[in-house]
Specification:
The chain is α/β, with parallel strands linked by helices. The protein is about 50% helix and about 15% strand. It has helices at about 5-20, 25-40, 45-65, 70-85, 115-125, 145-155, 170-180, 200-210, 230-240, 255-265, 285-295; strands at about 100-105, 130-135, 160, 185-190, 215-220, 245-250, 270-275, 280-285. It has an eight-stranded mixed beta sheet, sandwiched between helices. Strand 5 (about 215-220), helix 9 and strand 6 form a beta-alpha-beta unit. Helix 5 packs parallel to helix 6 and helix 7 (about 170-180) packs parallel to helix 8. The chain is elongated and about 70 Å long. The protein binds guanosine-5'-diphosphate. The site of guanosine-5'-diphosphate has 18 residues, from helix 5.
């Protein structure tokens, strides 16, 4: 189920409820069941959906005691609030400040869009007065450095990497040092991915993180991975202290549930979404706007 379908299904469930003459227990149950089905089909985890149902019921029973309360509005508001809460871990992300050097490390599985997203992130900040630098610490994938180099050149962002050095920790440390000396204030470290979650990947990530002491670790997740999102995000979070999530490929047949699950698993906010292969196809993620758009 693509995002628009998820929103459509929830909106339809709400509309059906609005058409009912009286909002009784049956109408509320039907509405909640429809919403539950839509969320599960969009790959949101069962526990999250169950909690959401309980929270909506609680809100409805708390707020509809007074005579004359518009039950429909209470339910609609509760659904909106619950969807927002699912996407908001209640913890603001680290935000880089101009002129104050910081290291941002990107982690994620191979193919998630990590390298592309590193450049997009640099490209987004550059016109705002930041001086970014890109470090390619991905020594695992053949061609990773060439890709970063190509992307970085296109975005006119300085880059650092090596064709011969095979130790990612060494490259990461050298790159960060180089850019610190060059007064870059946004030092971005692209790390290796793997096709699947492997112990070696997590160990490497942990070492790069320990050596470069990032101010922020961003977990990059492909929006189409579906139900696997929660476990994947949680596995990354257990190895490095993920502080934010970027969900990529939201332009494709994206499932909304992946983003919701990643937030729950990492307890970190989604900060941007990738909406295409090009540099500029990158949007700041705004929870309320996202949910509003979702519900149409
Ligand atoms: P990495 O292995 O995680 O570094 O992934 P890459 O950055 O190489 O990206 C893998 C593929 O996904 C490339 O073909 C990218 O162009 C593509 N890609 C990355 N982000 C997006 C996105 O937001 N939308 C779309 N449609 N493609 C993307």
């Amino acid at each position: 189920m693509v995002l628009a379908q998820l929103g459509g299904s929830i909106s339809r469930a709400l509309a059906q409820m609005s058409n009912a003459t009286v909002v009784d227990e049956k109408v509320l149950s039907d509405c909640l069941n429809e919403i539950t089905r839509a969320l599960l089909q969009a790959d949101v985890r069962f526990q999250m959906v169950r909690d959401m149902q309980a929270n909506i019921r609680r809100a409805v029973s708390l707020e509809t005691h007074a005579a004359g309360t518009d039950k429909r509005r209470v339910i609609q508001k509760a659904v909106f609030t619950e969807l927002c809460n699912m996407l908001d871990p209640g913890k603001p992300p680290f935000v880089p400040k101009k002129g104050k050097q910081c290291v941002v490390m990107f982690v994620g599985l191979q193919g998630s869009g990590k390298t592309t997203t590193c450049t997009k992130y640099a490209h987004y900040h550059q016109p705002k007065g930041f001086k970014p630098g890109l470090v390619c610490a991905d020594t695992f994938r053949a061609g990773a450095f060439d890709q970063l180099k190509q992307n970085a050149s296109k975005a006119k962002v300085p880059f650092y990497g090596s064709y011969t050095e095979s130790d990612p920790v060494k490259i990461a440390v050298e790159g960060v040092e180089r850019f610190r000396k060059e007064n870059c204030d946004l030092i971005i470290v692209d790390t290796s991915g793997r096709h699947k979650q492997e112990a070696a990947l997590f160990e490497e990530m942990r070492q790069v993180s320990e050596a470069t002491k990032p101010d922020l670790v961003i977990f990059v997740m492909d929006s189409s991975i579906g139900q696997a999102a929660f476990d994947q995000a949680q596995a990354f979070r257990q190895s490095v202290s993920v502080g934010a999530v970027i969900v990529t490929k939201m332009d494709g047949h994206a499932k909304g549930g992946g983003a919701l699950s990643a937030v729950a698993a990492t307890r970190s906010p989604v900060i941007f979404i990738g909406t295409g292969e090009h540099l500029g196809e990158f949007e700041v993620f705004d929870v309320k706007q996202f949910v509003k758009r979702l519900l149409g």
